[in-house]
Amino acid sequence: MSKLAALGGKPIRTEPYPEWPVHDERDVEAVTRVIKSGNWGGYPYPGPETAAFLKEFLDMQGGEYAVACANGTVTMEIALRAAGIGWGDEVIVPAYTFQATAAAPMAAGAIPVIVDIDPATYCLDPQAVEAAITDRTRAVIPVHLGAQMADMDAVIDIAARHDLAVVEDCAHAHGARWRGRGAGTIGHFGSFSLQSSKIVTAGEGGVLICRTADLAQRAASIANCGRSHAPGGGPEGGYRFTMGGNYRMTELQAALGRVGLERFPEQARQREEMADYADEALSEVPGVRVLRRDPRHTTRSFYRYILATDPETFGLEHDAICYALEAEGIPCWLGYEAMNHYDLFQPGLSRLPVPSAFPERFRFDQMHFPKAEQACEREAVWLDESVFRAGRQGVDSAVAALLKIYDQRQELAAQVDQLRASLSA
Ligand SMILES: Cc1ncc(COP(=O)(O)O)c(C=O)c1O
Fold this sequence. Notes:
The chain is an alpha/beta fold. Helix content is 40%, strand content 13%.
């Protein structure tokens, strides 16, 4: 076997993986159609493309009501505000997620209460949720991370007992199903991102699935500058404004999203098939732990496939493994930092003011989430979705690269300090 590519050898794979986003003439035609219509923006809401996109999105994901928004961050803020959550209320979020999950409650005026994860799945730990509930807790945001889904049975049970709103962060989970029900249709709200790396994309954009017509009307109103979306609202029924902002998606985005939805089922099918294959193949690699697939997670449609590498078996931290994998031609990523370590949540770095009320809730730098920190800072390797759209060979290359790194772990460990120094130079 050749030397590791990170150490000057030949890479396992030179053939590129399929590109993302996928595009063809249909996208050009969709954008052209909207440009020619003269109706480019998101007002009046919903325009014809937006209404059609929302219907097609619900046909794919399930659920009855949805609101189109500017991105998958404001969707969560809008959901919380539509549920009446605001100043001083506490919203439970997992320690392993993108910063938006914790920033959205803050934007709504609420306090994000971070809880640790289940190391078997990397999603929020229901026991930690239960332990974090206070008399101010009003909502929980389970995140379906990577190729996983949070334990929605446990989350719904806790929420029902404590009268909490459930906002599912489905930024990674378009098409995923739990006991046959679409992610985002199990809680009160399901928040989806259409940002350019996401598996249904419009460049930017967001969809908020709402459990009831009433919640959807409130959410639409908040997203549409406070204009009423209740029956009888609008010009004839008279406007009844609520406090809102302009969080609308544009018709151009909706048109692109519609083409993305046409392609989506086949892409999702390929990824799911190859993820099943990868689970088995990766289990054979020493020092690699495949995250537990919950049997209730009936359709695994996903954004990234996260695996756990064991720093002791490899004698390497995940950053070295990721670096070596990239060099072997495998697109991968270290993933998010633990929420308490995000720069954005360090008061000294982000100018986040520590409010005089509940200051302890905002001293993120003094918090500890050992399981999330272990996952985020030592173990996790996120394989790109494209690895799963390149047939068995795509997965075989990733497995071969991991085996190669395992075989040459000592040589790599010997060079790690030098590599880190050259990377930071
Ligand atoms: C888990 C998670 N939640 C929320 C978001 C926010 O979505 P957006 O970028 O559309 O605001 C993202 C991704 O960007 C995400 O990965």
